[in-house]
Structures are given as structure tokens and as C-alpha cells.
Design goal:
Protein name: CFEM domain-containing protein
Keywords: Disulfide bond, Secreted, Signal
Largest sheet: none
Main location: secreted
Order of helices and strands: HHHH
Number of strands: 0
GO cellular component, one term: extracellular region
Low-confidence stretches: 4-8
Shape: globular
Radius of gyration: 12 Å
Helix content: 40-55%
Pfam families: CFEM
Number of helices: 4
Mean pLDDT: 82
Structural class: mainly alpha
């Protein structure tokens, strides 16, 4: 539901089980802002995706997740 509810985003097949079995905590699966600010969800899905995906699939999954979260949450990224 995380990616299929409000966004027609296709995630790499290797990442889909990570989203399906993620720790949603107190967030609804359709509440992207809540999920993107949940340390448990972000850490758990990131670790899972990094262990299950490689190469282009890993890059695609990271790009989709970053793009999705940055559209609803202000990311404080500063150049050093």
C-alpha cells in the first residue's frame, strides 16, 4: 500500500517484499509523510533493500524512495 496507494510508482521487484513486511509503527500504510519520518520504517526498509537489491535495482529503489519522501518531507541536506 505504501507505494501503490497514492502514487503509480513501480518499485524494483527486489524491494517490494521489504515494503510489504516493513514496520509501519503507528503510521497508516498510505500516510507517506508519517512513514518517511518514522525512523523504524526508514531504517528497516533501507537495510532490507540494501541487502536484497543490487546494481540498477538498488539505485532505482533508492531514487524512488528519496523522491517520494522529499515530495512530502523537507529534507535538510546541506553542502559541506
Amino acid at each position: 500500500a505504501f507505494l501503490h496507494s497514492t502514487n503509480p510508482i513501480i518499485l524494483s521487484a527486489c524491494a517490494e517484499p521489504c515494503i510489504a513486511s516493513a514496520d509501519y509503527g503507528t503510521c497508516q500504510q498510505t500516510d507517506i509523510k508519517c512513514l518517511c519520518t518514522s525512523n523504524a520504517f526508514v531504517a528497516g526498509t533501507t537495510a532490507c533493500i540494501q541487502s536484497k537489491c543490487t546494481g540498477d535495482d538498488l539505485t532505482k529503489a533508492q531514487t524512488v524512495a528519496t523522491g517520494l519522501c522529499s515530495s512530502v518531507v523537507r529534507l535538510d541536506i546541506r553542502a559541506h
